[in-house]
Amino acid sequence: MGMTDLASLEAIVYGRVQGVFYRAFVSRWATEMNLAGYVRNLSGGAVQVRVEGERKQLSQLVKRLGEGPPGARVEKVVTHWSEYTGNYSDFRIRH
């Protein structure tokens, strides 16, 4: 795998995404896809996801972010792609 296959992604997820196990949902998928980074709630009710790994896996995760777990209602996902940094060793839920 070349470095060109690696990327960094920040996604802000809006809708009913807090208090519905959304962070656990993201963590499970990110870990399963061998991605590294974190997910956390933002004060306005949105959820922030910062994640790095293979571009193909990141695109798959973005699809999952739009679906969410059963209790969630995702209104929109705003993504920002950037260069891979290698700053994360695993995926965590931040509080």
Describe the structure in your own words.
This protein is α+β, with helices and mostly antiparallel strands and 95 residues long. It has one domain (3-84): 2-Layer Sandwich (Alpha-Beta Plaits). The chain contains 2 helices and 5 strands. The protein has helices spanning 22-32, 55-67, and strands spanning 6-16, 36-41, 47-54, 73-82, 91-94. It has a 5-stranded mixed sheet, covered by helices on one side. Strand 2 (36-41) and strand 3 (47-54) form a beta hairpin. The longest helix has 13 residues, at 55-67. The radius of gyration is 12 Å and the shape is globular. The N and C termini lie far apart (33 Å). The model has no long low-confidence stretch (mean pLDDT 96).
Spell out the blueprint of helices and strands.
Blueprint: E1 6-16, H1 22-32, E2 36-41, E3 47-54, H2 55-67, E4 73-82, E5 91-94
Parallel strand pairs: 2-5
Antiparallel strand pairs: 1-3, 1-4, 2-3
Tell me briefly what this model is:
The protein has helices spanning 22-32, 55-67; strands at residues 6-16, 36-41, 47-54, 73-82, 91-94.
Summing up helix and strand content along with how strands pair, one would put the structural category as: alpha+beta
Overall average residue pLDDT: 96
CATH topology type: Alpha-Beta Plaits
Largest sheet: 5 strands, mixed
Strand content: 35-45%
Top-tier CATH class:
Alpha Beta
> In order across it, which strands form the biggest sheet?
4-1-3-2-5
Instruction: Give the helix proportion (percent range).
Output: 25-40%
Radius of gyration: 12 Å
- Tell me what the CATH architecture is: 2-Layer Sandwich
CA-CA gap between termini: 33 Å
The 3D shape can be described as globular
- Could you spell the SSE succession in H and E letters? EHEEHEE
Task: Tell me the number of strands.
Answer: 5
| Total of helices | 2
Number of domains: 1
Q: Give start-end ranges of low-pLDDT stretches.
A: none
